[in-house]
Specification:
The complex is a heterodimer of chains A (about 270) and B (about 300). With about 270 residues, chain A is of the alpha/beta class. Chain A is about 35% helix and about 25% strand. Chain A has helices at about 45-50, 70, 90-95, 100-105, 110-125, 140-150, 170-185, 200-205, 220-225, 225-235, 255-265, and strands spanning about 5-15, 15-25, 30-35, 60-65, 75-80, 160, 190-195, 205-210, 215-220, 235-240, 245-250. Chain A has a 6-stranded mixed β-sheet with strand order 5-6-7-3-8-9, sandwiched between helices. In chain A, strands 2-1-4 form a 3-stranded antiparallel β-sheet, with helices on one face. A two-stranded antiparallel ribbon of chain A has the order 10-11. In chain A, helix 5 (about 110-125) packs across helix 6 and helix 6 packs parallel to helix 7 (about 170-185). Mean pLDDT of chain A is about 85; it is low at about 240-250 and about 250-270. Chain B is built from 15 helices and no strands. The termini of chain B are far apart. With about 300 residues, chain B is mainly α. The chains are: A alpha/beta (about 270), B mainly alpha (about 300). The interface of A and B includes residues 69, 83, 98, 102 and 109 of A.
Chain lengths: ~270, ~300
């Protein structure tokens, strides 16, 4: 079967310093995949490179077998919540309707149909009561739900989400996890940049471990191992017994340290 | 002269009416486009464009010997665009940050313009007289032809702003998301910058290169205080700009020696100061009151 996403030899560099080096990636359809790795590992950059938002130095990206530009309508994107100004003069409903702009194309304005779709998406994330609210009045969790609703109205086959759990309350986290599983149940492919290693086995079924290079990738049960995490995070991982009794590794190093450790011995990452 | 006389003058005095119409158009256009510049945190670009326009105005006259509005505005626009392109080139290719690049371009272009002006002033040819009005503006020199050109280009700029409204909103709020949808954010950036250049260039004769950036920043900052709706903000910003233009014209016509540009800028500054202090919700005065009440409750 054709993979949902195929990345070949992808390299991204800023000011001649490689941020991503020679990435090969194949994501099958219908999986819930986490991208994990230390700070500065290039997780967000990988997502942006796949979406054509970061200039690539080399490599090729295919979405369902074709270049991204031809598959835009099938892709939904949730950028990092902190990447926009939440004091922008606009309402919740207006932000969610932006998810329809791609389907509308140039010049056409959103109308009643877009409004209905946006309200339905807000309903799904439990934010319908906030439709007319100014966006600066939202909490972090509510902002994230609005961003998810905006991606939902895109009605895509593939979703890319950058740190959707960043700084949200426990209720919102549970709601987002529920939403992700609903999307997978509906046959969608979901790629999530994720920070919390402890929740990876619980939330996701597929994982890519990244630190400038792709360290490992595949089903969580197979590749989310102590060995691979050590390679990704530079060897300093502490183990914490979880309440369920399952041992899950937790990263203790900061990204910069891990990156430095990695840079010191690049051969170890291969 | 009392209020009725001023009103009478604005409506029926040909010269005053022409000037007021011109300053209203410049206030409307710079206010509306300034709102987008403010929301994109690019207000300083307006300052760089207007200062960079000065050598363009002088060079356009030196090369053509013509002082018509179209020629001078074209020179101003070309120099303004050149200034912006240089800022972008500096930011991209060096370690100099955008604020420093703006400062460099602003002062180099402005200094060059001043030098050209003083060079021209030694010329016995009297035709150059009036070019130095572009420093602080001289609204009283606006003729019907000037106003016509301003209205035409201002109308085009506002028309394009409305046409690309949805796309420009996307650019201002969430550039990456807009790009992921397939809208060319670079093209939209070029468009909004060109519209800003138009807004600035049509105002230079009346307000001058030094003060024009106030007409970009102040109406927008004032309007943001009163509304949380983008459409209303842009409309209100244009309205504030136009009101300041007309009020400034009226006031400077009362006190004969006052040049109009600075008075217009004082008017818009007063509107901005009032809005920053007293607008409901966002006004500093209310924030201060809320703090005081809180202190009373918890003390």
């Amino acid at each position: 079967m054709q993979p949902a996403i195929q990345v070949n030899d992808l390299t991204v560099a800023y000011h001649e310093k490689p941020v991503l080096w020679d990435i090969d990636l194949e994501v099958p359809r219908g999986v819930l995949m986490a991208i994990v790795g230390p700070n500065g590992a290039g997780k967000t950059t990988l997502m942006k490179a796949i979406l054509g938002l970061a200039p690539t130095a080399a490599g090729q990206v295919l979405i369902e077998g074709r270049p991204y530009a031809e598959q835009r309508r099938r892709v939904g994107y949730v950028p990092q919540r902190g990447s926009v100004d939440w004091d922008f003069p606009t309402s919740v409903l207006d932000v969610v309707m932006m998810g329809r702009y791609g389907a509308l194309g140039w010049f056409r304005r959103p109308g009643r149909r877009e409004r209905t779709l946006a309200l339905a998406a807000l309903e799904k994330v439990d934010m319908a009561a906030f439709a007319q609210r100014q966006i600066s009045q939202l909490s972090g969790g509510q902002q994230q739900r609005v961003f998810l609703a905006r991606a939902l109205v895109q009605d895509a086959d593939l979703y890319f989400m950058d740190e959707p759990f960043q700084g949200v309350d426990a209720t919102t986290e549970r709601a987002i996890v529920g939403l992700l599983k609903d999307l997978r149940a509906a046959g969608k492919t979901v790629i999530v940049v994720h920070h919390d290693l402890q929740t990876v086995p619980e939330y996701f079924d597929w994982v890519t471990l990244l630190n400038v290079r792709r360290i490992a990738g595949g089903p969580v049960a197979e590749v989310f191992t102590e060995e691979n995490l050590r390679l990704t995070y530079g060897g300093r991982i502490a183990f914490m017994a979880r309440p369920a009794g399952v041992e899950t590794p937790r990263a203790e190093t900061t990204g910069a340290e891990a990156g430095a450790a990695l840079a010191a011995q690049p051969s170890a990452t291969l | 002269m009392d209020l009725m006389q001023i009103l009478h003058g604005l409506l029926f005095d040909y010269t005053l009416r022409t000037v007021a119409l011109g300053t209203a158009v410049l206030g409307l256009v710079s206010g509306a486009l300034g709102a987008f510049a403010l929301l994109r945190r690019q207000s300083l670009i307006g300052d760089a464009i207007s200062h960079a326009a000065l050598p363009g105005v002088v060079l356009a006259f030196m090369l053509t010997g013509v002082k018509g509005p179209l020629v001078l505005m074209a020179g101003a626009a070309l120099a303004g665009v050149a200034g912006v392109l240089l800022v972008i080139a500096i930011t991209r290719n060096t370690r100099i940050k955008q604020d420093a690049a703006l400062g460099i371009i602003l002062s180099v272009f402005f200094g060059f313009g001043l030098m050209l002006l003083t060079f021209l002033q030694r010329d016995p040819d009297a035709r150059q007289a009036g070019l130095n009005h572009f420093l602080f503006g001289q609204a009283a020199t606006l003729l019907e032809g000037d106003v016509l050109v301003m209205t035409l280009f201002g109308g085009i700029a506002l028309g394009l702003l409305l046409l690309f409204w949805k796309e420009l909103k996307l650019l201002a709020f969430d550039r990456d998301f807009g790009a992921s949808l397939g809208f060319s954010m670079q093209a939209l950036e070029v468009l909004i910058t060109l519209l800003l250049v138009i807004a600035i260039v049509i105002g230079l004769q009346a307000v001058g290169v030094v003060l024009m950036s106030a007409m970009i920043v102040a109406p927008a900052a004032a309007a943001r205080q009163w509304t949380d709706h983008l459409g209303w903000m842009v409309a209100l910003s244009g309205l504030f700009g136009a009101a300041a233009g007309v009020a400034g014209t009226a006031i400077s016509s009362l006190a004969g020696g006052l040049s109009t540009g600075p008075v217009i800028v004082l008017c818009i500054s007063a509107i901005a100061a009032f809005s920053l202090l007293l607008a409901p919700n966002r006004g500093l005065f209310w924030a201060w009151q809320r703090r005081r009440r809180q202190r009373e409750v918890f003390a």
